[in-house]
Amino acid sequence: MNTPSPKGKLYLLPVPLGEEGDTKDVLPQAIERAVDFIDHYIVENEKTARRFIKAILPTKKQPDLKLSVLNKHTKPSEHSGFLQPCMEGKNVGLMSEAGCPGVADPGAAIVKIAHEKGIQVVPLVGPSSILMAMMASGMNGQSFAFNGYLPIEKGEKRAALKNFEKLSQDKSQSQLFIETPFRNNKMLEEVLLALQPTTHLCIAADITQPTELIKTKTVAQWKKEIPDLHNRPCIFIIHKF
Fold first, then answer.
1. Which of 42, 66, 116, 171 registers the highest number of CB atoms within 10 A of its CB?
2. Which of 82, 99, 123 is the C-terminal boundary of a domain?
3. CATH number for the domain including 74?
4. Residue 154: other Cβ atoms inside 10 A
5. Integer distance in angstroms from the first to the last C-alpha of the chain?
6. What is the mean pLDDT of each run of 10 residues along the chain (241 residues)?
């Protein structure tokens, strides 16, 4: 009787949160070691993924890399095929465009399929803007919720913000959310209009970058000193104590 070949593993490979700075300052050696023995990758953008691999391990031969692109245009019917190398005994690396794959990232769908197929998932340590913002906010690290993107329509967005404010007070639960970077200034404007003056707001922008800004103040205090957040990756956290 033929014994089935062992399956490869799916490695979740964090990447830096921005382009500036030395990758070795924010990434452990375990990621470099993983890149050394992995040739198959699932990535959001092939160009930036190759640039990252070259930066972290210059000796890696680029022609040996086999990259599958997973983004908002990828059909769900294609997802399962990305893990075929694992079924053939080869290891696969999953990378996000920034931070940790599978968290606020389309890679979560691939991880789900890996579990269904009995493929071992190996998460490696790296920067998460969500956790780093929470760590530095001074808010409730015992109970918090990440809500992703808010509704686009202004009325629905304002209602969502007021609901988060109420949840934070009723449950003592900090509420995190994000916006597309080029809309951040408009988002901040909406936040300051919707929330009560005494509600606390943490703005965490450009985490790990030279321009990093992480401050927690009341809404009333922020109205006196409004930062420019245009095109700056940002996490917003609100809590009404």
1. 42
2. 123
3. 3.40.1010.10
4. 12
5. 65
6. 80 91 80 97 96 94 95 91 97 95 94 98 96 98 97 96 98 97 97 98 96 98 98 98 94
